């Protein structure tokens, strides 16, 4: 019981380092563009991987899916060409700096939106689409 205090003062120590706190909701500075290791090595690369499979190599993935559906349990033996095409396409795009930079910018926008509003970052894109379709009227 040596670590407990009986004072009525609020605690001033925080779990997060000071540079990760702050901002309007104490979720971090919305304008901070620095990236932690986990953000660079995991979160952004997951965004890259998702975009590669959904956008850049969707034709190759569809070919492999079709072949796999037809081959059934023999997919390993019958669909080697399609698998190799998907892997080559994925490698090409996964190491593309332009795509990585796009995903990094998108991640920073989503993180900034979360830190500003407390809402999940993916809602940033939905709200952006909703407001972009509206005509811009001058405030009267």
From TrEMBL:
Keyword Transmembrane helix appears in the UniProt entry:
no
The record ties this protein, via Pfam families, to:
Cmc1
Cross-referenced InterPro entries: Cyt_c_biogenesis_Cmc1-like (IPR013892)
Location comes to: Mitochondrion
Please, which domain of life does this record's source organism belong to? Eukaryota
Alphabetically sorted, this entry's keywords are: Disulfide bond, Mitochondrion
Similarity annotation: Belongs to the CMC family.
Q: What is this protein called?
A: COX assembly mitochondrial protein
| Gene for this chain | LOC113208955
